[in-house]
Amino acid sequence: MPDADRPPMVSLRAVDKHFGDLHVLQSVDLDVAAGEVVVVIGPSGSGKSTLCRTINRLEPVDSGQVLVDGVPVPAEGAALARLRADVGMVFQSFDLFAHKTVLDNLCLAPTMVRGTPKAQARREAMALLERVGIADKAGHFPAQLSGGQQQRAAIARALAMAPKVMLFDEPTSALDPEMVAEVLAVMTSLAEDGMTMVVVTHEMGFARRAADRVVFMDAGRIVEVAPPEEFFAGGGSDRTRSFLSAVLTH
Amino acid sequence: MSALVDAWPQLLAGLGTTVFVLVTSAVGALVLGTLVTVARVSPVPVLRAAAFGYVQVLVNVPLLALLLLAVFALPDAGLIAPLVTTAIIVLTVYEAAYVAEALRSGINTVPRGQVEASRALGFTLSQTLRLVVVPQAARAVVQPLGNVLIALLMNTALTATVGVVELTSATNKVNLVQAQPIPIFGAAGLVYMALALVIGLGAGRIEKRVAIRR
Fold it and tell me: Is the alpha carbon torsion for A123, A124, A127, A132 positive or negative?
């Protein structure tokens, strides 16, 4: 549950971003409290992935401010690398390191970025693999895993850095339907453990179940922010209602 | 066959020069080509443009023209170096462009997402390159680099035209005396084939050894 006394873990203030002529983020403001789970939904091209990627500056913003745990996200360089180490990210396409075993995928950043001793990194990695249910795959290479297993490994890899906040950029969009559930289960348990999470997804069930707040985006703007029960009750704007009727009836 | 036996020392000396030129320019081209590739993928626009220009110029000029230019034009401009050295430098500079292209194709085989994941985990640019990009790119370029080396081997024969007495030139000289072109050039051809086979098999073995399990 969100902790109201602390400053926001993530804060976007009047963020603007263009891709060429496309105004992909239009003066976006959003605070995510420590321990809060914010689920961002919206149609394709609404800017929700871009919003997620500005938080660790995989996408630099044109103007406005992005703060993580009260610290403005710095320009590319060593300071940004340090900040990114504290911000876990999970991608649509898993993006595990193909030349490393699952265990080594988890150990690489803790040992190389944090200087964690190898033995300790391995112990912690095994505990995380246990937690996401693929400890038996520790010695396998990514290509030997199913999509769902790869994504759970990718979540564990991000968690291995003990991040302050986890970003999920459409984590289940590339998965076969039967594998979506196993990944969402891991994410739900993470949310229950109090991890601060920003989740861009099309999974309305997850939004209902795990979100503290749902953010609805359209055409580069945040159209609506509401707790899930209120959001899905359909009391919001016309744009929200038409989106909900499209996604909830298919 | 007696022609070959009589001319044995001359042919062997020619082969020695071929192997010497091959090995030195291969090492040079790998080093220079790697530097060009680093420039090509660097975040500095000037370096990227320079590396791009380097590759474009060299793959679009015939090697023979470069050899003639270096051997006859540079001394005219006051730059004089031993003939074999000049040939090695030209081959190095020329093949480096092809090495750079092979390395770049290898880097392109590493999915962009893995680079983003590395950055998201807090790796610096050099860590990303060292830990994620290069180990995977290196696996993908073994065979293409083998092919560049084989092409380089064949290209060493062009240095005969500017006076380097390597295998082809030595073979030609022997034939001028012995006038038995079929066994003499046939034997030289077999030697080139054998060398190419060694490079090709070597590349194949290395590729198998470093392959990623799937």
Answer: negative
DSSP collapsed to 3 states, A96-120: CCCCCCHHHHHHHHHHHHHCCCHHH
A113 contacts in B (CB within 8 Å)?
121-123, 127
Global pTM value: 0.83
Q: How far is B52 from chain A (nearest CA, A)?
A: 25
Q: Tell me the per-residue pLDDT of A85-124, one tens digit each, with 9 for 90 and over.
A: 999 999 999 999 999 999 999 999 999 999 999 999 999 9
Count how many residues are written for chain A.
250
Q: Are A65 and A13 in contact (CB under 8 A)?
A: yes
> What does the pLDDT look like over A48-97, one tens digit per residue?
999 999 999 999 999 999 999 999 999 988 999 999 999 999 999 999 99
The model's pLDDT over B136-164, given as tens digits with 9 standing for 90+, comes to 998 899 999 999 999 999 999 999 999 99
Q: How far apart are the C-alpha atoms of A84 and B122, rounded to whole Å? A: 5
Task: Give the contacts of A246 (CB within 8 A, at least 6 positions apart).
Answer: none
Strand pairing of A196-200 and A221-226?
A: unpaired
- Reference A134, options A179, A87, A193, A90; nearest CA is A179
For A57, the token pair is 């500056």
- Which residues in B lie closer than 8 A to residue A157 (C-beta atoms)? 117, 121
Question: Three-state DSSP class for B111?
Answer: coil
Burial call A154-173: b when 16+ CB within 10 Å, e when fewer: bbbbbbbbebbbbbbbbbbe
- At B14-63, the pLDDT tens digits run 999 999 999 999 999 999 999 999 999 888 999 999 999 999 999 999 99
Q: Report CA A21 to chain centroid distance, whole Å.
A: 27
Residue A31 tokens read as 């605070």
pLDDT of residue B153: 96
d(CA B191, CA A60): 58
User: Cα(first)–Cα(last) distance of chain A, in Å?
Assistant: 32
Cα–Cα distance, A91 to B192 (Å, whole number): 50
Q: How far is A68 from chain B (nearest CA, A)?
A: 14
d(CA A179, CA A147): 7
Interface test with A, best of B42, B109, B116, B121 (most A CBs within 10 A): B121
Instruction: Tell me which chain A residues have a C-beta less than 8 angstroms from the C-beta of B129.
Output: none
State the complex-level ipTM. 0.91
Copy the structure tokens of residue A173.
């969009």
What residues in A contact B117, CB-CB < 8 Å? 89, 91, 95-97, 154, 157
